[in-house]
Write a structure and sequence with these properties.
This protein has 339 residues and is of the alpha/beta class. Helix content is 58%, strand content 9%. The chain is built from 14 helices and 8 strands. The strands form 2 sheets. A 6-stranded parallel beta sheet has the order 3-2-1-5-4-6, with helices on both faces. A two-stranded antiparallel sheet has the order 7-8. Helix 10 crosses helix 11 and helix 12 packs antiparallel against helix 13.
Length: 339
């Protein structure tokens, strides 16, 4: 083939290629036109616009994430510097003095509670654990007779309990773990009033949420096992509208507070919830005597002799008569209410 023929062949091949490319472009354009010829709803259009904006702003979002991480890092550094004066939790924990007092929650009443009450007990135990971890004088915390519904509920709803620190969780009964002479069962049914906490002893709290259905069950257990029992000196310092039975976590927290302050009244009024209507006993006595005097004045009327006679008749000569007088006064008050 001559050199004159070569350019002509190359030129014809290039023309063929261009024609082929043009045909492919036309086909693709037609297909696009065919796609576009289909009607697009407003919703689809909005989606397409959002998707396009999302793709366009990818780098911007990445940059914002970097800036956020830097900002959080700076905030953490500032917090560390601001707490460098010794008020941070880690520094406070160094001042903790562990108590040798053993505090036990007895979970042997599993069969006396429905699932709803088991869940409440679980929450109270969680609160006890958290408060003990934060306390300045944490106790030796024991959870005994751990099993049944309570363990199942904890496994299902609080799997992290297996990693709890500074707590002894045992399936055994407390009587199998601690000497009988060291045990003191805290129960509101006991006739013995606790005056001081002996840190060489082990105090047992009944892990029972019963809404007053199982009266005396903790006292009975203490008596059956032949161990010492007592109640907190609540009546010596506090007058309450409700009954003296407290929740497990309230008893636990009162003991923690007492170990810190060594003051029962301060411990009670720091921990007891407002719904209990707790007031100091001295104020309650003042209020009661004021009510009695006002009732006597009303009953006496304008006759001073009858007023003095009424006063002398209501004046108690002994604690027994004072108690009887209070009961009669309450009864007369109830009867005087309109029906």
């Amino acid at each position: 083939m001559s050199s004159e023929m070569l350019p002509a062949c190359i030129e014809t091949s290039n023309i063929d290629k261009k024609q082929g490319l043009n045909e492919d472009q036309e086909e693709s354009q037609k297909s696009r036109l065919g796609e576009r010829s289909e009607p697009i709803s407003k919703r689809q259009m909005k989606k397409l616009i959002k998707q396009k904006q999302w793709e366009e702003q990818r780098e911007l979002r990445k940059q914002k994430r970097k800036e956020k991480r830097k900002r959080k890092k700076l905030e953490r550094q500032c917090q560390v510097e601001s707490h460098s004066d010794g008020n941070d939790r880690k520094r406070v924990r160094r001042d903790v003095v562990h108590s040798t007092l053993r505090l036990i929650i007895d979970c042997s009443f599993d069969d006396l509670m429905v699932l709803k009450d088991i869940k409440k007990l679980h929450k109270q135990i969680q609160r006890c654990y958290a408060e003990n971890r934060r306390a300045l004088h944490p106790v030796q915390f024991y959870l005994t007779s751990h099993g049944g519904q309570l363990k199942k509920n904890m496994d299902e709803n609080d799997k992290g309990w297996v990693n709890w620190k500074d707590i002894h969780i045992k399936p055994e009964h407390y009587s199998e773990l601690i000497k009988k002479e060291d045990l003191i069962y805290l129960t509101s049914d006991s006739p013995n009033i606790l005056k001081e906490l002996d840190e060489s002893k082990a105090y047992v709290i009944g892990g029972l949420v019963d809404h007053n259905h199982c009266k005396g069950v903790t006292y009975k257990q203490a008596s059956d096992y032949g161990i010492n029992h007592a109640q907190l000196p609540l009546g010596n310092f506090v007058k309450m509208n409700s009954r003296k039975v407290l929740a497990v976590n309230h008893v636990f927290e009162i003991i923690l507070e007492y170990l810190e302050t060594r003051d029962w009244q301060e411990a009670f009024f720091t921990i007891l919830p407002q719904r209990k209507g707790a007031v100091p006993t001295d104020k309650a006595c003042e209020s009661s005597s004021h009510d009695k005097q006002s009732v006597r004045v009303e009953e006496g009327g304008s006759d001073s002799d009858s007023s003095e006679e009424e006063y002398s008749r209501n004046e108690p000569d002994s604690p027994h008569e004072e108690k009887q007088d209070k009961e009669n006064h309450a009864e007369s008050t109830v009867n005087s209410l309109p029906h």
